[in-house]
Structures are given as C-alpha cells and as structure tokens.
Design goal:
The protein has helices at 5-13, 313-316, 352-359, 382-385, and strands spanning 36-37, 39-40, 43-47, 53-56, 62-73, 77-86, 92-96, 104-110, 124-129, 135-140, 156-160, 170-178, 190-193, 211-223, 233-235, 250-256, 268-275, 285-290, 300-305, 321-327, 332-339, 342-346, 348-351, 371-374, 390-399. Strands 2, 3, 4, 7, 8, 11 and 12 form a seven-stranded antiparallel beta sheet that branches. Strands 1-5-6-9-10-13 form a six-stranded antiparallel beta sheet, with no helix packed on it. Strands 14-16-17-20-21-25 form a six-stranded antiparallel barrel. The chain has four helices and 25 strands.
Length: 400
C-alpha cells in the first residue's frame, strides 16, 4: 500500500518539523507511539536464548526509533541518526558487543542518550532517497559522527551469521563487521519501521514459544489398503504423492507442545514435517492440512510458513489443535486432534482419487496421486470396507 511521502516521513520523525536546511538536534527521546519490528532480509529480529539478537526466531521484538538528528534534502532525501529502542522498555537500546572488529553481535543494553551525543556502540543511521516505501534502510554507524548518504557510507556492514536458514528457522545472529574503507552504502541494512505504524504493526504476543529441538531426516512411505485396483506400498514425494521412483526426503522435528497440554509419552512424540529441500534453500515451511476435512471432503497437504508459537492452556481448552504424532517404535505417522490436552480424534489417510471413487463422493480432486486426510466417525462403515492407508516415516539417522 502506498502512502504519501510527507505523511510517511512525518510518521517516522514524530512531532519534529520537517526541514530542508541544517541538522535538527533533539533530546534523542524515542517516539513510543510508533513502533514495529526491525527486519533483515525481510526477517524480523528476535531475542535469542543467550540475549543476542538473531534473524528470525520465536521471540520477535518491537522497536521504536529515538532520533537524535536528521536532514531533509529537496523533497524526498532523508538522513538521520539515533538509537533503536525496545518499544516496551525505553531504557534498553540495541547495542553492538564491540567496535572496530569483525563479527560483533547485538543485544539490549541500557541506553546512553548523552543529551544528543550518540554512544558509538548504539549509534544507527538511516538514509534514503525516499521512494514511498513503508521502511527506511538503517545502518550501524559506530563512532562515525557523519551522516550516512550515497557519498558517505557507514563504517560498518551488517550481515547474518549464516547464509541459509537453520533448522530453527533463523539466519543465526545479527552481526556487524568494521569496514572503514567502503566507498558505497552497503547492500545489507535493517529495515526501520515507518508508514505501517502504528495501525498494522504486529502486537506483542503472549503465546508460548514452540520449541523444536531434535530432528530426523528420512523418507515417507504410504501403504495403500483402500483400493482393490491400486495396492500401493512405497515412498511419497515432496508433494505427498504416491511415487515409486522418488528419492525425496523429509525432516521431522520433535516439538514441545506441553503449554497446550500435549506431552510426549514413551515412543510417542509430537512435531512437524518439512521438506528436506530446506537444507539447500532459504525457506522455513512446514506441511499443513488444507481444506475442511469434515463430511465427505478430504483435505490435502500444503506448505505454509512454520509457526513459532503454540496454543496456551486457555486456548487449548476451547479450540482443537491438529498436530503430527510420530511413534518411534513402528515409525507410524498420524495427524491427530487435541482438545484441552486430550486426543479427541485422528485423521484417516487416503489417496484422493481412491477416496473419491471408492467412497462414491463428489469432490474436487486436485491431485489424483496425492495423499489426503479426513476425520471419520468410528461407526463409519467405510472404515472397515476401505481401511485407510498407513503413513510411516523411516529415518536415515538421528541427531539433536
């Protein structure tokens, strides 16, 4: 959505009047009515377990901007310097662990506003020949007292710890290198929140973080007992299709759903499935049931962005929660439904075409070989006449 440039600049700069002349000093007070997430490569910064910021992760933090000085040139070019402040605790600022080094990390430390004299370990600058977007690019500026612009690059370059997403869906820590010999503005930057605030900024959430630790890599198999004309027993490809020639692999992550009352017991654990192609590409997607799954309609499986949170006890008491159940003793995979910490139902697996033809229902078959899931009542005669197929996950190795 496009916003008028003047409106967006006003949103960032708060009550300060726009000028076209000399830098405007301020008291570096944060504008707490305007806040949002900081992103790097379109991924929000999150607070890691050790207190350092990571790119992605379960605990995204909202920030406000404390502007200490800024310039406007002509109609649209803007330059500024200031602090990036915890939106819920304005005493804490994003702070580099060291200066003049490589691989410095960032954490929250007490803000040192210094009456407008920006502390070097907390100094950020933004610059843009403004084009109407909802964010401004931000750079770590360190001890550099000069504004950042097309001819004055910052002294530092922001980067991610890893080039690809890890199993927990992060790019590792947000790091910065001392690069005093730059001749152009770095290609990497933080996206500072702007015109989307405060209306559409993500609100802080109290949902429990979903912790997924150990993972397995392996193959999914399907044993189809539902059709006399198609007795398939073999692997599934990454689209969950019966495909005897496939070598596609999957990642099973064991997750802790105990905040929702779901607990692993013995050989039975719970988690999520992802395609192993994520080991090669920067994606963080999990398989999810798509469709109604009630009555005669069967659901398919599609990839969606993996969630970082689970239901709390209050939500789990009133809302159904579908999760993957994995029995490590026989390798069976089941989609099951929990309510208030108790399993209340289980989905049955069929190839979509077999389900359509054998059960005699009319539905849209979007993938004839694709595996689908549906909830059937225990007294449904078709469960005996056409038993559902069996899905299993056969791991190659175990790791944690």
């Amino acid at each position: 959505m496009a916003f008028p440039r003047a409106l967006l600049l006003s949103a960032l700069l708060g009550s300060a009047a726009l000028t076209t002349a000399a830098p405007v000093a301020s008291t570096c007070q944060p504008e707490l009515r305007q806040w949002g997430q900081l992103t790097f490569n379109d991924t929000a910064l999150s607070l890691g377990d050790d207190g350092d910021f990571v790119i992605g992760g379960a605990n995204p933090i909202n920030f406000a901007v404390a502007i200490c000085s800024y310039d406007n040139y002509g109609k649209y070019e803007v330059q500024g310097q200031g602090y990036l402040v915890n939106a819920t605790d304005a005493t804490q600022c994003l702070t580099a662990s060291a200066l003049d080094e490589e691989n410095a990390s960032f954490s929250f430390q007490p803000c040192t506003y210094n009456g407008g004299d920006i502390s070097a370990t907390q100094a950020f600058a933004y610059y843009s020949d403004y084009d109407g977007g909802n964010t401004l690019p931000g750079y770590f500026n360190g001890e550099n007292s000069k504004a950042v612009n097309s001819t004055q690059p910052p002294l530092y370059t922001l980067k991610s710890q890893y080039n690809r997403l890890t199993f927990d869906g992060t790019l590792g820590k947000l790091l910065v290198d001392y690069t005093p010999n730059l001749t152009t503005v770095p290609a990497t930057s933080l996206a500072l929140p702007l015109g989307n605030l405060p209306v559409t900024a993500p609100a802080p959430t109290d949902d429990p973080a979903l912790n997924c630790a150990s993972h397995l890599i392996g193959q999914l198999n399907f044993n189809n007992q539902t059709s006399s004309s198609n007795q398939y027993n073999g692997p599934l490809n990454a689209r969950w299709e019966a495909d005897a020639s496939t070598s596609d692999k999957f990642v099973f992550e064991q997750c802790d759903y105990s905040p929702a009352g779901i607990k692993a017991e013995g050989d039975v654990v719970y988690g999520r499935l992802r395609p192993s192609t994520e080991l090669l590409h920067s994606k963080f997607q999990c398989y999810a049931l798509e469709g109604a799954g009630l009555g005669p309609w069967i659901m398919g499986l599609q990839l969606q962005t993996c969630g970082y949170a689970t239901a709390d006890a209050q939500e789990a008491a009133t809302s159904n929660l579908d999760v993957i159940q994995y029995n490590t003793s026989d390798n069976s995979i089941h989609w099951v439904t929990f309510l208030n910490g108790t399993q209340v139902s289980e989905y049955s697996a069929y190839t979509q075409l077999d389900y359509d033809s054998e059960y005699g229902v009319t539905q849209h078959v979007w993938d004839e070989l694709g595996i689908g899931y549906i909830q059937l009542s225990p007294d449904n005669a078709n469960l005996t006449k056409y038993p559902p197929g069996k899905v299993s996950f056969v791991p190659e190795h175990r790791s944690s």
